[in-house]
Amino acid sequence: MLFRSAFALILTLCLLFGGGGRIAALAAQETAPEPAIAFAARVVGDKTRTRLIVDFNRDVEFETWFLAEPARLVITLPPTLFSIETEGRKLPDSLVSGISFGAADANRSQVVLALSGPASVRNAQLRLVVGEDRSRLIVELVKSDPKSFAASVRKPEEEKPVVAVKPPEEQRKFVVVVDPGHGGVDGGATGRGGTNEKEITLQFAMLMREAFKKDDRYQIMLTRDDDSFVSLDDRVAFARRHHADLFISLHADSLRQRSIRGATIYTLSEEGSDTLSRILARKQNRADLMAGMELPKVKPGVADILIDLTRRETEVYSVRLARKMVDSMQDEIKLIRNPHRHADFAVLRAPEVPSILLEMGYLSNAEDERLMASPKWQAKAVIALKKAVDKFFAPRFAMR
Fold first, then answer.
1. CATH class given for the domain over 36-158
2. CATH number 3.30.413.10 is the correct assignment for the domain at 171-398
3. What is the pTM of this model?
């Protein structure tokens, strides 16, 4: 996934700034080239003439071509990190009706423009922004006619003389790592009815595994599949070792305020979005201490590099997933008020893996405890979560 390419750059910089033994060992294993970074994009114009403008941190080579049914313009780039937020932004009434971007395979990234009608590329160029350390790609589209557009469309690969080749890298299964919270000596919370957090999270993770195994687009992996203790550091390392495309940590905490109930979706933030989120993060981050382990120490300089060069990109995708989870789950199960929240959970700190923490509910609330132990509730919640993950990966499915 594109985040792993970014991490190669990060590890190299960590060495330069004194990352130390473990960072150095990891760096030696990474050989991916430094990716470009696309940090801003906009579409301007009308139905007769439209421009796409994308800002990069450096020069990039690019290629454009058209596809039909539906009409699209594809822009191929070298491996690129897209630190661009498009949700909530309305495109102008122009020749471009939609935009998506992401990794096409290990060696290419793509920007795909959905077209509202036939068009042609009048001009496409990369310009150096004077006085700034960045380059700007400008692609200008003009209205065309159906016959001219059809003639410019790239012919299907099947029409070319080809030999049998291995399936492209992009056809690999998306790796989803599910992390049942707690386990072993770390029992987590316990409800008044005797429901144990480490058991309820494992039950839910097992159901998720069964649901995702039925979809051959995914490879699903669990950080634990029995009552064993796994440290916070090892949970994160597991996701990174298996090149996870997504990491979902499951919890069912308890609170002093027994009236609070409903599921909550957390993404990473150094500053918690509210007092409750900060309390829960501190509590969860002490799980290793409660099991007799020391929390891993990270040098401030290295942490700064990780945050600056990769986490910004990853957080965009984590937030995107959280929003889709809220949309999918709100009609199926009870959610807390303001269900998408932010906190500094240690288990969400893999810099290159989009990660969320799902508090399925609160065992301190009798109704939540009863529901979370119910097979019917668990099945509904798993279906809703699976729908959210499908929607999250939809743009990348479409590019295959």
1. mainly beta
2. no
3. 0.57
